[in-house]
Every structure is written in C-alpha cells, then in structure tokens.
Amino acid sequence: MKIEIKNVTKKIDKEMVLNDISLSLNSGTIYGLVGRNGSGKSMLLKTICGFVKPDKGYVIVNGEDIYKNNTFPKNTEALIERPNYLPELTGFENLKMLASINKKIDDTEILNTLKKVNLLDEKDKKFKKYSLGMKQKLGIAQVLMENPDIMILDEPFNGLEEESANKIRKILLEEKEKGKLIIIATHIKEDIDELCNVIFHIDKGKII
Fold first, then answer.
1. What span, in angstroms and rounded, lies between the C-alpha atoms of 170 and 176?
2. Contacts of 15 (CB under 8 A, 6+ apart)
3. Cα 2 from chain centroid (whole Å)
4. To 10 degrees, what angle do helices 107-116 and 91-102 make?
5. Is the Cα torsion angle 5, 11, 17, 19 positive or negative in sign?
C-alpha cells in the first residue's frame, strides 16, 4: 500500500488550513502526525480519506487519484475526531450494522475485536451510556474489525485508561508487522514516540 500526497492545499473562509503538503507514505510503517489543536491534523486525515476535496493538489492511493475518480481509498478505515454512533443501539449492534455494509466479517469476528480492545464486557450496553473511553474503544474496534490495509486514527488514546492504551499500542505494532499502513494524529507527542517509525510535525496547515 502507498499513499502519495502532492501539494495539497485547502482554504476555508480564506483561512489556509492545509498549506502545500506533500508526503509519501508506505505500508509496514506507523506514521505520527503531531500538532496542537487546530493545526490541520484532522483536516489532512479527512483529505486522505476522501472526505474533503483539496483546492489544489492530489491524493493518490495505490496509484488511484481518489479525487479525480471521485472515490474513497479502498480497504481503508478511519477514526477521525469524536466517535459517534446510534445512541439507542448497543456497542455490538452498532458494529454489526456497520459490518453489514461490506459483509466481510461475522459476529464472531466482531466479538473478537471487542475483546481485543477491552470492550467485550460492555458490548450489550447502549452507546448513549458509554463513557468517553468506551466510545473511543468502540471507534478503534471499528477501524480494526475488517482487517483494513490502511488505518487512520485521530487522537486514539483520548480518554483511555492506561491498561487499554497499552493494549491498543501493542495491537497497532502487531498490525504494522503484518504490513499495514497506519497514521496516528495527536497533540501529545509522548503518545506516539514509542509507536511511530516516522513523525511529522504540522503547524498552521504546514508540515514543519
């Protein structure tokens, strides 16, 4: 897997939120994206995912220009900003509904993923009763459950207790060894020092 970002630029209400960004990202690597809140991290992730079209530049995933072809990158899962699901459904029901779109996995694989992220005991609790950490773990489970080639995680350790955070770090390292391309964004550099092969710093929409 390879992601090529070429001269990506985006303005919103005359404010430069992404400023001529070019990056080349390869499989088998965990990339860190570090910057303060409002630095452009989440906007860059959304652009990579096909959610926000840049004013200039290209995003090419495995040789496909996703904006030229008006598509989303294949076999990619993302957790960007605050995870949100249907409040009246349980954690398990929310994941099962999402899994029904691609029909790649069954209930057993969903349950195994919930166990991986320390959420199996809360699988039958309604999402509206989830704590911040539980919501975060459900979002991470969604990213993991269909075994994507590209994983994009925005502030993945936000609200997690130490045990779960350490478990997630271990899982991500294992996924990297399987050849996955992983991008982690955070405003806390210490969160990713031990995880990432390459760390980019972003400020005012520009890689510095």
1. 10
2. none
3. 16
4. 130
5. positive
What SS3 string covers the chain?
CEEEEEEEEEEECCEEEEEEEEEEEECCEEEEEECCCCCCHHHHHHHHHCCCCCCEEEEEECCEECCCCCCCCCCEEEECCCCCCCCCCEHHHHHHHHHHHHCCCCHHHHHHHHHHCCCHHHCCCEHHHCCHHHHHHHHHHHHHHCCCCEEEEECCCCCCCHHHHHHHHHHHHHHHHCCCEEEEEECCHHHCCCCCCEEEEEECCEEC
Is residue 98 within 8 A of residue 83, CB to CB? The reply is: no
CB atoms within 10 A of CB 109: 16
pLDDT tens-place string over residues 154-175: 999 988 988 998 999 999 999 9
pLDDT by residue (tens digit) across 106-153? Answer: 999 999 999 999 999 999 999 999 999 999 999 999 999 999 999 999
